[in-house]
Write a structure and sequence with these properties.
The chain has 514 residues and is an alpha/beta fold. The protein has 14 helices and 21 strands. Helix content is 32%, strand content 24%. It binds xanthosine-5'-monophosphate (XMP).
């Protein structure tokens, strides 16, 4: 995919997600970065010609059996290296220093004190706050290394060897709690490694468009739109690259949120002029879901129906050779490797694509992180509603209606959900909240409206904060905001007489109700 040459920093992963944050920070410093396994050999590194190498932190102690190592030949390549936390200890240990087992470790904020001049720290003040998270620490620096800073519990907190071009820090410059953290990374990248910062949005657009043109040429491509940000940005980008040779297919399951389908059609067909096959398949989904109450069975039916309809319509586009997918870099890392891992992800949104599909994959976002994809979407002219859309499950409102899904229940939920989202937006909380939505329970309760007794359904509001959906906490929404949502929902949505707020975190709950 990468047809345009660009300086690349390899971030060597020693485990536990530390590498992703470092890779993102490197890109914020406008330098392209890639994550590689710590098993990479010196030969492989030499062949990839990186502009610098960063060794990440990791959860292990360098002393335990099986602690991940680095091919020592990498230190001899003359490529600038920065070790962070575990990476710092590994450099010390592998190059002849001593790493002592800690007795209490150092976690959280610590005060770093400089010992004179430091190429890496530049003109930062003589003491500042850094974020530490380590048990062992370097007690003796390897020969030839200068110790340029320390903290009360880490006598060797910064190591430098200018002629070998190796630097190391015990603290975490990538976290926001470290003062000057980004400045230190920038210094390493721009001054010490001498990398020209050219990973900018313009260069991303240009290089990704060039790569799509290279791959697809004059062939035809199809793209399944889900309404979500990834497929939307992938489609917009491929359209820029190959124009009318792209056809998008949008299957409206009837389980989308209020006005969502209109917005997809409006954005892609009318505003961007993309050829869009809009399949209005709500009736078919409602038919298949009739009488079904089991959550897993509902998911299965929705997924299978989706695939069948998608196949039926894309099958009509006989001359297509490529299928565009919005796979992101974190998906690539998780599925274990960049090169040739062209398996179609068992994406809930498309419920798994047919095995016999002979299309080749075009994944123009596979180098990018989510925040870059959002910026790219805005640059390509997509509206905020799509670019900043919250995650939405593939089975849609089908898993937010407890019990049987009917057209009437979908209508009730769409109306209530629209109020929840509108009020979150009005309160300016849209980007702080990971997901905020309504759930329709399968029970009724007694109420009174005016002089009338009511017997109607409750709506449950669910709003959570999270970084990655693996864990989540219920959002502490202001009571006034909840009050507004509650009275609007009961007054404006026919069939609802009660509103509850879900105060369960994940775990033990899940974000969705089914
Ligand atoms: P849970 O409910 O497992 O959800 O805490 C975690 C995240 O995944 C989303 N989700 C789905 N996304 N297809 C999807 O594409 C699905 O079937 C699905 N189920 C849950 C959910 O919205 C949350 O962001």
């Amino acid at each position: 995919m990468n047809s345009v040459a660009r300086p690349t920093v390899l971030v060597v992963d020693f485990g536990a997600q530390y590498a992703q944050l470092i890779a993102r920070r490197v890109r914020e410093a406008q330098v392209f970065s890639e994550i590689v396994s710590h098993r990479i050999t010196a030969d492989e590194v030499r062949m990839r010609k990186p502009a610098a190498v960063i060794l990440s932190g990791g959860p292990k102690s360098v002393h335990v059996e099986g602690a991940p190592q680095l091919d020592p030949g990498i230190y001899e390549l003359g490529i600038p290296i920065l070790g962070i936390c575990y990476g710092c200890q590994l450099i010390a240990q592998q190059l002849g220093g001593v790493v002592s087992r800690g007795d209490k470790g150092e976690y959280g904020r610590a005060t770093l004190t400089r010992n004179g001049t430091s190429k890496l720290l530049g003109d930062t003040e003589s003491t500042f706050s850094v974020w530490m998270s380590h048990f062992d620490s370097v007690s003796v620096a390897p020969e030839g290394f200068e110790v340029t800073a320390s903290t009360p519990d880490a006598p060797v907190a910064v190591l430098e060897h200018t002629s070998k071009r190796i630097w190391a820090v015990q603290f975490h410059p990538e976290v926001v709690h470290t003062e000057h953290g980004q400045q230190i990374l920038r210094r390493f990248l721009h001054e010490l490694a001498g990398i020209v910062p050219n990973w900018t949005m313009e260069s991303i657009v240009d290089s990704q468009i060039a790569a799509v043109r290279d791959q697809v040429g004059d062939e035809r491509a199809i793209c399944g739109l889900s309404g979500g940000v990834d497929s939307a940005v992938a489609a917009a980008l491929v359209h820029r690259a190959i124009g009318a040779n792209l056809t998008c297919v949008y299957v409206d399951t009837g389980l989308m949120r209020k006005n969502e389908s209109d917005q997809v059609v409006e954005t892609f067909k009318r505003n961007m002029g993309i050829e869009l096959v809009h399949v209005d398949a709500g009736d078919e989904f409602y038919d298949k879901l009739q009488g079904v109450t089991d959550p897993e069975q509902k998911r299965k039916i929705i997924g299978e129906t989706f695939v069948r309809i998608f196949e039926r319509y894309t099958g009509g586009i006989k001359d297509a050779k490529f299928l565009v997918q919005g796979t992101l870099y974190p998906d690539v890392i998780e599925s274990g490797g960049r090169e040739g891992s062209a398996t179609i992800k068992s994406h809930h949104n498309v419920g798994g694509l047919p095995d016999d599909m002979t299309l080749e994959l075009c994944e123009p976002l596979r180098d990018l992180f989510k925040d870059e994809v959002r910026t790219l979407g805005t640059t390509l002219g997509l509206p905020d509603e799509i670019v900043w859309r919250q995650p939405f499950p593939g089975p849609g409102l089908g898993v937010r209606i407890i019990g049987e899904v009917t057209r009437d229940k979908v209508r009730i939920l769409q109306e209530a959900d629209a109020i929840v989202r509108e009020e979150i937006r009005n309160a300016g909380l849209e980007r702080e909240i990971w997901q905020a939505f309504a759930v329709l329970a399968d029970i009724r309760s007694v109420g009174v409206m005016g002089d009338e007794r009511t017997y109607a359904r409750p709506i449950i509001i669910r709003a959570v904060t999270s970084d990655d959906a693996m864990t989540a906490d219920w959002a502490r929404l202001p009571h006034e905001l909840l009050a507004t949502m509650s009275s609007r929902i009961v007054n404006e949505v026919d069939g609802v007489n009660r509103v509850a707020y879900d105060i369960t975190s994940k775990p033990p709950g899940t974000i969705e109700w089914e």
